[in-house]
Design brief:
- It contains 33 helices and 22 strands.
- The protein has 1028 residues and is of the alpha+beta class.
- The strands form four sheets. Strands 3-2-1-6-5-4 form a six-stranded antiparallel sheet, sandwiched between helices. It has a six-stranded antiparallel sheet with strand order 9-8-7-12-11-10, with helices on both faces.
- The protein is elongated.
- The termini are far apart.
- This is Phosphodiesterase.
Length: 1028
């Protein structure tokens, strides 16, 4: 290659010239870039640069010093069109440092005695328009590699550091007049001069110093939310750069006319008359200085009473759309000095970012709360209301709804207060009169009146509640489907401490309305289900009513709920008058008119008083009166329903017609039963009239219910002849038919007059007993004979006790539990079901598998129409009896035997028995003792039961072998073998005798049981010796 083709190596002078040309081009490119953004003036360029440095500072929690200082240097080069710029930053650890755009090194220029040294010492800037003057010394003030024409040195002193920041500009091209004007403003004490370039350099100096000082955060670290983190960073910069001692961000809720403190999170509210509210509405900032009176401000206003306020700055936060209403207000406080022009600009720029972050935060909150609303409504819709309407206690469902309301509405207290029945207010109660019953919530009667009258929610962000506490309150009415009646209220009070807002806003009100609507729909559905369920049960009872007397009594007792009436009576036509169920006679009023005409009257909407036959003592404001006709149109009776304050609904009239038709059908059936199926149809009406006459003449003399006395005292209705065979343990069920055993069960229930006290219909009781009998399987041991024996022994125990020991509801629970304790038993043990993983074991999670199944079958049978022996018990008695039945059945699981005996040993002492705490244990012990009472029976009967049990054990053992599961060895014992004798001896010694000795020590009349146990043990011991 020739020498002419080689590139010549550039000289040092060429490199310096090229670098100068490149820097000049770069400066022009920067200025062009600022102009392209839209800055048509120098002021716009400076404002863009100011926003730029703050945007960079907010991009990370602690931006690196190189990023901050490098950006400031780049701005200065562009704004002044300088060739070179040196920044001098004073740090507490390393002293004065110099940054040239690449390296940060200790600064030696201030020690040379040049122009920079003079500027720092005098704390005044130095401007040399031309370096040809004697003031500029190139060896001291110049920089290597730069041809200098002009020079500027500017110190930025503060009160804490003499000169924390200084700038040297070389060859600025903006012109001497611009620079002189800038330097004049920097040294002017009049802070009213708002020169953009001066403000920028002041803020840049503070930001550069802050990058090295790392000021402590003024607040605890916020949650890791991007919007809250942005507000937190802005607050940190306000503290470091503008000297703000406290920054509080209020979000504006335009719908509630309220401002709430969202950062830092505090439970503070501002009303529409506050200074912050004025700033939010006008979108104009407000500056308050305490040494200058201002009519807009008074000390302690807007929650500033805990601060020393020297100056207060309120800035509107406009979010991302400046034309939209304010999203919030920033409240900035300085405690020692006033806000300077630079401080105000810094606060305005930073609060633009705060407003954008607040708008993002509020938007994300809207999305999150919409999702929460969907989840809340989904959970509320999934709550299990009583499917058949038979459950009277809605508290579990209401409590679940209250818990969901507290969770999603972030309320400390959420209550659903219901009043009235189903879809009507209580009879004769107006909304105003119902208000006191709603004050179970934590609000006063005035609020209740407002809700009940207006049917609109009451939402108060901050108020004094009835219990004396102060907080937010939201009350939403629960309206019926027509919006006419208030069924109750949803009351939420006291926002939870973790809630984003310290009050209930419109979204919470929307959630409250949704909750109230679902409560209303649930109540209406439950009411309709209850109505349909009650109607079906009533019609079934009517179809099986054995006598007209029972039909009349049932109508008087049950039809009012079905028709939503105050009173319903079946009045029998007899001797020109109407005879009521209690024996009273009606000679006037609308039912008499219906009996005479044979035409129904439907006066639904309170217009009964206008009828000429109306009688105030008999009728009400709304009346349904329907004749009960025979086949030849003879009026036999009148169905009379009355409501005093509410109108009847059209569906109530339809239901009344259905009841009247079924009543006529039942009367006809009773007449056919009386004359026989071979009778003559012509005699049907006469027979019905005779039945009515018999019932009417005996209505006034119904015998009272017999008192509670133990059977056999000479006062019980069944008489000693019926119960005599059942008083002895020698009663042998193997000698009786199953139908005969059913009769004995009925005698046991009648012995204590349970059917009278709990109003159990005779046919209902018999249907229940027969249904229970039919559900016992044909297995050797756990069959209906074993159930009867358990009931029989329970009866023997109970009949010997003093009447003060047990209540009638205890006796009923004992009898039902004993009779049902092994329902549907398949002759296999719990262990077998668990080992073979049967469906029953899986259903009950291997916990008391059979016992849980028996209890479930018991109450499933009670749910059948016409089988519920507890349907007329009071709510309190029903819950007590139900719990007791379940407990006594579960207590028959042998795994609870040892703990039961241990508890009985400690608690069953004569004279120390506590009914409140020991009654449950006593009931469980009675049924469990009766369940394992075979050794207490006479020896022949006991031996028979032992044989049947061995047969069942042997069958299970063989099945376990066939299925390949580990068998229970003791079940392989053969009948009449030594193993059988040893098994019985062991059972008596370990299980039976210890339990029955405790029972005998506490209860009366169990001596024969202990004697039989001793005799049976001797029997098995002799058998074991004989076989051996």
């Amino acid at each position: 290659m020739s020498s002419s083709s080689k590139k010549l190596k550039p000289t040092t002078h060429d490199r310096v010239a090229a670098r100068r040309r490149w820097k000049l081009v770069r400066s022009h490119v920067r200025l062009g870039r600022w102009a392209a953004v839209g800055a048509s003036t120098a002021s716009s360029c400076v404002r863009l640069a100011t926003r730029d440095i703050f945007a960079t500072a907010l991009a990370s929690p602690h931006p690196a010093w190189r990023t901050t200082v490098g950006q400031i240097r780049a701005h200065l080069l562009s704004l002044f069109g300088a060739d070179h710029c040196l920044l001098h930053i004073s740090t507490p650890d390393a002293g004065l440092l110099e940054f040239d755009g690449h390296h940060l090194v200790p600064s030696v220029r201030p020690t040379r005695g040049g122009l920079l040294t003079r500027a720092i010492a005098t704390r005044h800037p130095v401007h040399v328009p031309s370096v040809s003057t004697s003031a500029f010394q190139p060896a001291i003030d110049g920089v290597e590699g730069h041809f200098l024409r002009s020079y500027v040195a500017v110190p930025f002193p503060t009160a804490t550091l003499t000169v924390p920041f200084a700038v040297e500009l070389f060859n600025p091209t903006v012109g001497a007049l611009v620079i002189d004007d800038w330097l004049r403003v920097l040294t002017d004490d009049d802070d009213s001069l708002r020169h953009p370039l001066a403000i920028y350099t002041h803020l840049a100096a503070r930001l550069a110093a802050a990058a090295f000082l790392h000021p402590p955060l003024p607040h605890d670290p916020p949650p890791p939310s991007s919007a809250e983190m942005q507000m937190h960073r802005a607050t940190t910069l306000l503290h470091a750069i503008a000297g703000v001692d406290r920054c509080r961000v209020y979000a504006v809720d335009h719908a509630m006319h309220t401002l709430w403190a969202c950062f830092p999170t505090t439970a503070l509210l501002l009303g529409p008359t506050s200074l912050a509210a004025t700033v939010a509405s006008t979108k104009q900032p407000a500056i308050i200085v305490t040494w200058s009176p201002d009519p807009r401000w008074s000390p302690g206003m807007d929650h500033t009473g805990d601060l020393d306020v020297a100056s207060l700055l309120c800035l509107p936060l406009l979010g991302n759309a400046t034309a939209a209403p304010s999203v919030g207000v920033a409240q900035l406080v300085q405690s020692t000095r006033g806000f300077s022009s630079a401080d105000v600009v810094a606060c305005e720029i930073l609060c633009e970012h705060v407003g954008a972050a607040l708008a993002t935060f509020l938007a994300s909150e809207v999305v999150a709360r919409a999702a929460a609303q969907t989840r809340m409504l989904s959970q509320l819709s999934a709550l299990p209301w009583p499917a058949d309407g038979s459950g009277d206690n809605l508290m579990p469902v209401v409590a679940a709804m209250e818990a969901i309301g507290r969770q999603f509405m972030h309320a400390d207290d959420c209550r659903i207060v219901l009043h009235g029945a189903t879809h009507h207010l209580p009879p004769g109660v107006s909304p105003v009169a119902a208000a006191p019953c709603l004050t179970q919530c934590v609000f006063d009667v005035g609020v209740a009146h407002s809700v009940l009258h207006s049917h609109q929610p009451v939402n108060v962000p901050y108020t004094t509640l009835a219990d004396g506490s102060v907080g937010a309150l939201l009350v939403v009415p629960v309206l019926d489907t027509d919006g006419l009646d208030v069924l109750g209220v949803v009351c939420c009070a006291h926002k939870a401490f973790h809630a984003v807002r310290p009050y209930f806003d419109m979204h919470d009100e929307l959630l409250g309305r949704g909750l109230a609507r679902i409560v209303s729909l649930g109540l209406m559905r439950h009411a309709h289900q209850r109505h349909a369920h009650a109607l079906v049960l009533f019609l079934l009872r009517m179809a099986s009513a054995p006598t007209l007397r029972e039909l009349v009594d049932d109508m008087d007792r049950s039809a009012a709920d079905i028709l939503h009436a105050d009173r319903v009576q079946l009045c029998l036509v007899h001797n020109g008058a109407l005879v009521m169920g209690g024996g009273g006679r009606i000679h006037d009023g609308l039912p008499t008119a219906v009996a005479a005409s044979g035409e129904p009257l439907f006066l639904l909407a309170g217009d009964a008083p206008s009828h000429p036959e109306f009688h105030a003592a008999v009728d009400g404001a709304s009346v349904l009166a329907l004749p009960i006709l025979s086949r030849d149109r003879t009026v036999l009776a009148v169905l009379h329903a009355v409501h005093g304050s509410k109108p009847f609904l059209p569906q109530d009239a339809d239901t009344a017609q259905l009841l009247a038709a079924h009543t006529a059908s039942t009367l006809e059936r009773l007449a056919w039963d009386a004359i026989g199926h071979d009778g003559v149809a012509a005699a049907l009406t006469q027979t019905q009239l005779r039945l009515i006459e018999t019932c009417a003449t005996t209505a006034a003399s119904v015998p009272p219910s017999p008192p509670f006395t133990p059977p056999g005292s000479g006062h019980d209705g069944d008489g000693p002849d019926v119960l005599a065979p059942l008083r002895t343990l020698a009663f042998n069920p193997f000698d009786e038919s199953k139908d005969s055993l059913v009769t004995h069960v009925l005698h046991i229930f009648h012995g204590f007059h349970l059917h009278t006290h709990f109003r159990i219909g005779l046919h209902t009781l018999k249907r229940f007993v027969v249904a229970v009998k039919d559900q016992y399987r044909n297995v050797p041991y756990h069959n209906f004979l074993h159930a009867f024996t358990t009931l029989h022994v329970t009866f023997v125990i109970v009949v010997e006790q003093p009447s003060a020991l047990l209540e009638l509801r205890d006796v009923l629970a004992l009898y039902v539990g004993a009779m049902c304790h092994d329902m549907n038993h398949n002759g296999r043990t719990n262990d077998f079901h668990i080992k073979t993983r049967t469906a029953t074991a899986l259903l009950y999670n291997d916990q008391s598998v059979l016992e849980n199944m028996h209890a479930a079958h018991c109450f499933d049978t009670l749910r059948r129409p016409g089988h519920n022996v507890l349907e007329n018990a009071s709510s309190a008695d029903y819950m007590y009896i139900r719990k007791s039945i379940i407990r006594v059945i579960l207590a028959t699981d042998m795994q609870f035997h040892a703990p039961m005996v241990e508890q009985m040993t400690r608690r069953f002492q004569r004279g120390t028995f506590q009914p409140e705490t020991d009654k449950e244990l006593l009931l469980n012990a009675i049924v469990h003792s009766a369940d394992i009472a075979n050794p207490t029976l006479p020896t022949p009967l006991h031996a028979r039961w032992s044989t049947e049990l061995m047969r069942e054990f042997n069958a299970q053992y063989e099945e376990e072998i066939a299925l390949g599961v580990p068998p229970n060895a003791y079940m392989s014992a053969k009948i009449d073998s030594p193993d059988q004798a040893r098994m019985n001896i062991g059972f008596i010694d370990v299980f039976c005798l210890p339990l029955w000795r405790i029972m005998d020590s506490f209860l009366d009349g169990l001596g024969p049981c202990i004697d039989n146990i001793d005799r049976n043990r001797q029997y098995w011991a002799a058998r074991a010796a004989d076989v051996t």
